[in-house]
Specification:
alpha/beta, FAD/NAD(P)-binding domain, six-stranded mixed β-sheet, 3 helices, globular, binds flavin-adenine dinucleotide
């Protein structure tokens, strides 16, 4: 089977792409190496997303996932992409769960914050320790 689109990354960007792709009635699968939701899952409180005065990152991620599932997006969790082999019209996505063939790829693999290694940094992430100036700079 050859997909129209493979989306790499199950964070807000990948799930948003998935909603649009399924509304366009394309045959797609989203691949995520960990849990669906991305970095927003570890956010205690989100206050800058229109429509919600305040929502936990985990709840917001669950809503993104629910919306993508409503449109029938296929998702594979725990599927890490190792490489992409470009064979022209067909791309072969090499994953820990096997090879997947697709006509096109959306890469929404996000970033990983660089940790300082300070005491309490991990425990307090999302509760005072922040890696996002635009979201939490005012704190
Ligand atoms: C502590 C914290 C607090 C934050 N607070 C806010 C806030 O209040 N408001 C706000 O707007 N933003 C906030 N952000 C920022 C927000 O979480 C990010 O902007 C957003 O998650 C980026 O979405 P993304 O989909 O681009 O990437 P990510 O969320 O990083 O998602 C990328 C996904 O791709 C997956 N992935 C990566 N490589 C591979 C691979 N090879 N194979 C398969 N999967 C792969 C990752 O596991 C990840 O799930 C916060 C971030 C952090 C860390």
């Amino acid at each position: 089977m050859v997909y129209d689109i493979v989306i790499i990354g199950g964070g807000p960007a990948g799930l948003t792409a998935g909603i649009y792709v399924k509304r366009a009635m394309l045959n797609a699968v989203l691949l995520e190496k960990m849990g669906i939701g991305g970095q927003i899952i570890v956010t205690d409180k989100v206050e800058n997303f229109p429509g919600f005065l305040e929502i936990s990152g985990a709840d917001l991620a669950a809503k993104f996932e629910e919306q993508a599932r409503k449109f029938g997006l296929e998702m594979k969790g725990m599927a890490e992409v190792d490489s992409i082999e470009d064979k022209g019209n067909i791309k072969i996505i090499k994953t820990t769960e096997g090879d997947i063939e697709t006509k096109s790829v959306i890469i929404a693999s996000g970033t990983t914050p660089k940790r300082l290694g300070a005491k309490g940094e991990v425990e307090l992430t999302g509760r005072g320790v922040s890696y996002c100036a635009t979201c939490d700079g005012f704190l």
